[in-house]
Task: inverse folding
């Protein structure tokens, strides 16, 4: 069986897909089952058992594949399913009425629906089946006329979309999909960086529809770029790039003090520490902007945030740093290699991370910009290294005398 699957001809026919865990396969299958089941049962309850109207149309099965198996796809987003299905239904009903031959009408409806979906940025493959269903669905569908657009197309689409939003978010998949955080790329001046313009130019030159959003593609390319730098990185550790002169804040400090420290020191993150310098969380500019309300006196806790904290903690908040800080913080260790640091930062989209030493006490902060600068400098040094020096360095590693290695070079 293995030899059959690895046959060159079969490998050309099989699509290249990223490996997916059993857990994710089960999650997608259960989501489709629940989505289709709820959509069908609710629709049937709405129209009754004896109704001539269809409760569930076949294209919803194809929509379920996208909504639950690949919820990050641009083809699976809410506007794609709603806009695509409604446009296809309108086109299908119209062509079915205007063109006498159903096969000719079906061909025109499918092509026109695809063109309009691409124009309105709501391309959804199952919508092609919606257009054909409107033309070839038989007397029950034809008798509905333009009512087919509202029922069952719009109703089915809204129902399965509602289930997809709830199910995906409850099972750890952000939906509607939010673009992945992209790690900071090396500066273009280094000759090794990608700019947004480079990516846009490549997409324009490729000139094909990709089943991945532009933002996700950029994040993927930047992660690959960072991975390449990490792979070529040297033995340096986190201790070599951390900033030891750190400005921290106490958890009971008022929000006005946090804002003043951020502004005075021109920094974007404050570690929140206890009296023993142990990190309790971090307070960023984003925390102040998103979790506090602002007036002429500066940031303060709003009523909604106060209720949220009161219900979560069982006590009234005080309008201090602990009330808006991010408590689930990733901490680094001084002995970590730069590769480990880069992976931790890239996974969470962090720009700054605290470094803790003995007894988990704060000993510094690492900035993503310093990490990237170090990795780029290492790569540039290796590029500029003379062949003899490179051979000597490899020889030292491999146990060959440097003079002999230089002679071989």
Result:
């Amino acid at each position: 069986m293995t030899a059959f699957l690895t046959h060159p001809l079969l490998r050309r026919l099989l699509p290249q897909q990223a490996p997916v865990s059993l857990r994710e396969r089960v999650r997608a299958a259960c989501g489709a089952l629940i989505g289709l089941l709820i959509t069908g049962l609710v629709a049937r309850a709405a129209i009754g058992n004896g109704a001539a109207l269809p409760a569930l149309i076949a294209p919803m099965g194809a929509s379920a594949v996208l909504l639950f198996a690949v919820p990050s796809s641009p083809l699976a987003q809410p506007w794609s399913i709603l806009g695509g299905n409604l446009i296809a239904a309108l086109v299908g009903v119209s062509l079915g009425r205007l063109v006498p031959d159903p096969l000719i009408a079906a061909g025109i409806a499918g092509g026109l629906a695809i063109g309009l979906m691409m124009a309105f940025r709501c391309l959804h493959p199952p919508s092609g089946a919606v257009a054909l269903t409107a033309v070839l669905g038989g007397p029950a569908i034809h008798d509905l006329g333009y009512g087919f657009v509202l029922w069952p197309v719009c109703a089915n689409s809204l129902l399965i979309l509602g289930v997809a939003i709830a199910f995906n978010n409850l099972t750890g998949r952000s939906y509607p999909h939010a673009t992945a955080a992209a790690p900071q790329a090396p500066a273009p001046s280094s000759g090794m960086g990608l700019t947004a313009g480079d990516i846009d130019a490549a997409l324009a030159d490729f000139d094909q529809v990709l089943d991945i959003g532009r933002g996700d593609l950029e994040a993927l390319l930047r992660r690959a770029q960072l991975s390449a730098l990490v792979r070529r990185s040297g033995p340096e550790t986190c201790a070599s790039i951390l900033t030891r002169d750190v400005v921290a804040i106490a958890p009971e400090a008022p929000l006005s003090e946090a804002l003043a420290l951020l502004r005075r020191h021109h920094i974007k993150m404050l570690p929140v520490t206890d009296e023993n310098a142990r990190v309790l969380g971090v307070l960023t500019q984003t925390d102040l902007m998103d979790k506090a309300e602002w007036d002429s006196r500066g940031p303060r806790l709003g009523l909604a945030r106060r209720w949220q904290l009161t219900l979560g903690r069982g006590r009234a908040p005080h309008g201090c740093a602990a009330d808006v800080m991010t408590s689930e913080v990733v901490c680094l260790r001084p002995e970590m290699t730069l590769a480990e640091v880069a992976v931790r930062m890239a996974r969470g989209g962090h720009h700054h991370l605290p470094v803790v030493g003995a007894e988990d006490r704060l000993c510094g902060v690492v900035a993503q910009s310093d990490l990237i600068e170090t990795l780029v400098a290492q790569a540039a040094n290796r590029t500029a290294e003379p062949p003899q020096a490179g051979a000597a360095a490899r020889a030292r590693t491999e146990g060959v005398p440097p003079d002999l290695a230089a002679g071989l070079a």
User: Anything to note?
Assistant: The first helix runs from residue 2 to 5.
